[in-house]
Amino acid sequence: MRKLLLATLMLLPILMSAQAIGAPDRKAGEGEGPFDRLILRGAILIDGTGGPASGPVDIVIEDNKIVDIAKVGVPKIAIDESKRPELGNGKTKEIDVTGKYVMPGLIDLHVHTGGPPKAPEAEYVYKLWMANGITTVRGVPTAALEWSLNEKKRSEKNEIVAPRIVSFHRPGSGKEWKGRKILTPEDAKEWVQYAHKKGVDGLKLGAHRPEIMKALLDEANSLGMGSTAHLAQSGVAQMNAIDAARLGLTSMTHFYGLFESMYENNDVQPWPVDINYGDEQHRFGQVARQWNMVKPGGEKWNALLDEFLELDFYINPTMTIYSAGRDVMRARNADWHDKYTLPTLMDFFSPSRTSHGAYWFDWTTEDEVAWKKYYQVWMQFLNDYKNRGGKVTLGSDSGFIYQTYGFGTILELEMLQEAGFHPLEVIRAATLHSAEEVFKPLKKPIEYGVVRPGLLADMIVVDENPLQNLKVLYATGAVRLNDETAEVERVGGVEYTIKDGIVYDAKKLLSDVEAMVDKQKQERGEK
User: Fewer CB atoms near the end CB (10 Å): N or C, the chain?
Assistant: First the structure.
């Protein structure tokens, strides 16, 4: 086994360029529908707008769209059957969800699909997303341009079991551009035009130099394409978050460039003199040392909030992906790893000089304290922005740093609540506001992200109240003591994930994932 692991690590640079195996065609029995008429009966509805839960209601879906939400009674009183919508004729189905909670499907705006060596098959990733209630993802990118666009089309046609896919790509990607570099503004515009013709939805940008960044954004915005940026430390000195927002960037992902936009006494981060950005413990350990370089509530802090708000700038923080830095032991031993994390993915997470994000070379208590302090300041900024009317959205970046696909998305919900968001604000960030970020560059109303007539039938059903405990949205549910039996049990977990009016048994999707993990363990002689 040790020899196998060493061989895998030696081949890692080659394997990282390999592509995931596309999802197999959707099999008979994988999802029911769409139906001429589908009715969810007796639901308690959390619609995604931030309004309170309400019910009982009957939610009527025809084909892939919601057509009616009928109030059929009041709590604790028998439902008036005369008020219930009729099922009608044709291909129909009704599901009794009395007392269960229905809410929009989650929209994760920062995902990657994996691939060798960590997650060779896209089916594994897609089913984890769907089992955790994620009905739309934005790949930044999911994988190589042509592969991603093909999987996007297959998902649009519901030929595969997968969320709908919004496809963002980095400048210079694509087979026709292989070997070419973007060196001039003219190159930048040419690539954006090329990507647009290919069907790319938007740009995943770095901290490009100003003239390149401007050209990329000008062209993307003129074509109705979205944009987000990871303003990496290697270039943030010349392109921080406010610099990019002023040039027309739609949103930022992660935190890079945020603190640098409001330093009190510095213009660049005062890195140690022996810093080597190629050493990932230097890279990720030192970034948290910015926590005391800004002044919460200060003049620069407030000026940045105000300008972001004026620019209608979206923040997609992806707090989950760095959360292991606060407590690596907790992340390494999460409840879901044993059954649902592939052994190859766990190998990838383990300390390694070659696996991206596996930077636990000598992680210390001091490192974790710095990250805890950093999160406190970062979360305060996000909450302040939300309270002023700014849009904070959902993203996970799972597949790195001990974050398993799908589960990392639910952790992001918990971290938004930790930041000060009310659970209704958390769900709004993960649904309505995330949908608005997708549709903003298109200058058109949202097509999903809220449960209301006229929108696509993307929603989830859970038998516990997520407002009372967001943990019930984890595919593995939440742990609770049953006082009647004195037994510890798991409750919740998404019961149904509905995408485009097709009803998927989320527990069955999770069981499929468990079988994939078991198979790999058996092949490796671990079970």
Answer: N
pTM: 0.95
User: How far apart are the C-alpha atoms of 417 and 421, rounded to whole Å?
Assistant: 5
Strand partners, 165: 137
Report the b/e string of 369-381 with b at 16+ CB within 10 A: ebbebbbebbbbb
Residues β-bridged to residue 491: 478
Alpha carbon dihedral 302, 303, 305, 307, in 10-degree steps, equals 160
The SS3 of residue 148 is helix
Cα angle: 173, vertex 236, 351; to 5 degrees = 75
What are the distances in angstroms from CA 334 to CA 50, 94, 125, 324, 472? 30, 36, 18, 11, 15
- Residue indicated by tokens 């509905």: 498
- The whole-angstrom separation of Cα 434 and Cα 485 is 41
Q: Is 111 in contact with 230 (CB distance < 8 Å)?
A: no
Kindly give the pairing relationship between strand 251-253 and strand 226-229: parallel
Query: What's the CA gap between 146 and 155, in Å, rounded?
Result: 14
For 433-460, what is the mean pLDDT? 97
Tokens for 173, please give them.
Answer: 């990607």
User: Rounded CA gap, 52 and 462, in Å?
Assistant: 16
